[in-house]
Fold these 4 entries.
Entry 1:
Amino acid sequence: MNTQCRSHAIIFPFMAQGHTIPLLDLAKVMSFRGVKVTIITTPSNAKEISAHFGPGFSSTISTHVIEFPVVDGLPLGCENTKELTSDDQRLPFLRATLMLKQPFESYLRDLLERGDRPICAICDYFVGWAITVSASFNIPGILFNGMGVLSSKIGRTVLLNDEYMRTLMNGEKLETLSGLVCPFPLILDDFPLFKNMNTPSMKFFKENGDGGANRTCWGVLCNSFEELEGDFISALEDSYGRSSVKVWCVGPLLLYDDQEENKTSLNDQFNLYQSWLDEQHERKDGVIYVSFGTQSQISNPQMDEIALGLDLAGHPFIWVVRSSSWTRPEGWEERVKGRGLVIREWVDQRSILAHPAIEGFLSHCGWNSVLESLSMGVPILTWPIGAEQPLNAKLLVHVLNVGLAMDPKLDEVREESVRYGCNAISSGVKELMGEESGRLARKRAKEIGLMARTAVMEDGSSSKKLDQMIKSLQQ
């Protein structure tokens, strides 16, 4: 690690696990390159952020804590989206983050008065307003895009151009966008967040998020790599309407730790299920990992269908269950004993996907999960739920050839809250884990995993781009 820090960078994550973790990875990567990093956060989030870094980072990475406001409509002490208890609280939470603007301005002003001018402020696209604040102090603001390049291009174009959404609302398929021939047809169901562009949340995002930073950002940082999405970079750059805006693909950020001698050890909790995975590997039984992220809400009837589908498929599985109200179907636990492991607490997903016993991933297709899976050479059975996940799923299935989609028509589902019945789930798992299409997806995933690891090596595409970006900012 280079501890001779020549420059200072600010990183401002949005207060959600999936948004924060890649930016913490970025903080480590920049500190390895001699940049001192300050992370802007709030009191309760600061504790978790500090725990992410070992003592070796104490001189290079620090936090600046801003009080999270108390607002109507939010639980007392709520400072992270994982603490929201209903969807009705999301808009009050977003509006509360706007109240961090004044203390952020004060912090930047204090830095400049002390002669400590940051080379940049890297801000999550959900706090895009911080880009404008940084630019007002002549500090380059860099938008961190937690999505892939292709989904970012498609999402921005639809978000900022109502005519595209009107086309989709009329039932037409889109095959071309400005500056991009889509590699798959777009339909309205690909945009669960954008179906009603006039909701308060969508208006907020257009005014204060990515759309609000459109005119003032210095550049865009993507957690992707050129070998994966290089064909779409110029189209995303064009969507910002200024030739000076560059898109820097510097990922997968999670892999840089593997290149350093001082990497952190596996989480202690992983040892609780490590032995179970080891046993499956010794028996040469490929395991499918099942998880839908920290934000997805799965109904109890749908949980029953997942349980029955995994039982019918007959393959070993490790399933992370977030629901506190779901109870296992009668007799199910006995039927899957020895080949099924249900975990209800937090898991180190990256370590699970890295285990050689894991040969498939049933996933909601959040971008972090996609990168973690592909980096470990694991193919994906796609189950997109919200946000840009349907676009990620199509990328996996139709472009990268590392994913398989399930067929909901295999079941006659009567429950409104059930999307896939047990037969669709069982069939999808069997195909991914045991059939030729699954074998080909696994082979392709391993090829992409090798590309990903090469990208973050010293002469890799992402490593070079990150060095170029830091050099440009320093100059």
Note: The two ends are 22 Å apart (CA to CA).
Entry 2:
Amino acid sequence: MSGVSTAMLVAAATVQHGYGRVELAQQAQLARACLERCGAGGRGLLRLVDHVLGRAGLSVLEALALPGLRGHYAWRKRRIAHWADRACANGAAQAVLIGTGYDGLGWSLAQRHPALRVFELDRADTVAIKREALRQLRADTSRLRLLEADLERDDALSALVADPGFDSGLPTVCVAEGVLMYLPSARAQQLLRAMAQCLTHPTLIATAMDLWHGRPRFRRERPWVRGWLQRRGEPFRWGCEREAIGAWLAVCGWSLRALAEPGDPDDPDPSPGEWLFLAECAAASPPR
């Protein structure tokens, strides 16, 4: 697991889930192209994903670390894509994606909604890898802007606000998937507050860790995973119980609209422990 980040694990899961599935082919292509540029760790993950024995080994490792994790990623992404598509159908003209890693949601949204402008914010090294991957795939990025941002800084949204294609007055869907838990709680709230203040009619799709036995974690997470995340510099810094999500969002100017149910009998979360929610700016009028 040396040299492997959580963003790379998500990308590898995307590649594996994309096999033989037309609706996921585009995102799987992008994830693969990104992993090819992630050094020995990324190329090693691809070798595992591309072979039967390698996939079996990944399944064993998942069982030893966090059973159901790859299924959780797929479960989470299905719902995010559904909510984002619905927001676009309801009039969102922009999408702002925070800390996207090697995910292809922004690219896919731009393809499915021809009038949509998409802005992705992430670290400079991640943006550079994704840019090269999209160039390799000869992707149409005319409505997709990849912007460098340090989410731990007070001016994290400065690149977005300064971009000539960005219009703060347009209805916007914001996505923060699998990123807020890596920031201190106060910093995460500050970031969401800044988003609420700089946008006129925003909708928010985001995730936050649950608290399990007093700390942020997945329910089936093995004890050694916490140490691995610490060594990777990606510890979960905070979590929130279900009953407290609404109040936590209210502090930063958002109102909770919906929460994805991990126990949905028709499609349960294979590895519960991360809340996925939909919110609207508290100052905005509710959608009709």
Note: The radius of gyration is 18 Å.
Entry 3:
Amino acid sequence: MTAILLLALTANGPAAHADSLKEATAAFAKKQYAAAIKLFRPLAEKGNAIAQYKVAVMHRMGLGVPKSEKEARKWSRLAAKQGNPQAQTLLGSLYYKASGEESPDTVRAYMWYEVAAAQGNAEAKKDLALLTKELTPQQVSEARDKAQKCKSSGYEQCD
């Protein structure tokens, strides 16, 4: 009996995650941010890259949670290292437009934009073009080398 119950719970795991993600996304779309964060956070903590990205966005903008660049960076980095191009773009912007306790890191921003742009993210491509004008050729070369290392390592060697 216990084995059957465990099998039933395990079998419903991915479906339950999908339902929670769907509910969280719907709450977010309706601007019900307190409800959305309650649904996104457990999924994010379990490693769901989409939920991690949404939690990062919510912290970046102060939607249902205190505005925190540090938390936004933490959650976007987790999703970015799973290959989520939206999170990679967000992380790039967090490095580029850093405020508070962090200072801007344009080389790291370029690296993340480059990684996201390689996956076809249009926003990253646009941000990359703008940032390229601000960097020296040496900085661009360094950032591209870092982006290549990041991509070739499966996003493991990105910092």
Note: The two ends are 48 Å apart (CA to CA).
Entry 4:
Amino acid sequence: MYNYNHPRLPRNGQHHKGHIIKVSGEGEMAVQPDTASVNIGIISEGKQLITAQQQNSLEVAKVIESLISLGIAKNHIQTFDYRIESDYDYDQGKQIFRGYKITHILQVKIEDLSNIGKVVDTAVQNGVNNVSHVQFTVKNKEAFYKQTLSLAVNDAIEKAKTIAGTLNVILLPTPISVVEGGSTVQPVFNTSGTFVKSMASTQLEPGQIIIKANVIAEFNYHPSY
């Protein structure tokens, strides 16, 4: 965004506060992720609520035990969602009770990204029938954002210099205001669905995370004559 304001110069030749160039600056950085999270769950059904609930709990406990055996810390495994729902069939407009559906979703944090495929495979082999929201992140996102913010400020300065040079005016190097516009993080992987038990190894590629920052800056200038 460019905004050029050039009112008439006062007769005394002094700088006028209205001589302002306003620009936007953008910064972007691609970062290699170092942490992942994945939601894994067991969805089970049964006509007897207590029985279905107990069975679901046993299967979830088995999954947790298998993950801990892979080296996943227990505090990196937490319940993300737990639901008990009644299931019905419909026959000629009549509602017929079919049973109960128990959904228990765990969110697992993984710090060794080379392990993520193995984590998913192990979970599926131990009863998991739903995998969703595989996401890659960085632990120190704030430090990367500050670097990106610096790039955004430098971009704004270069834009202001370009405008001033094109218009043949003298730019004062220090901005009179800089407003942070916020940050955005572009996710690199997000999927959901049902994973089927198989001998094939699951391959999940982390790719890169794109961190962006933007600013709005205002600079004073004065004519070159």
Note: The mean pLDDT is 85.
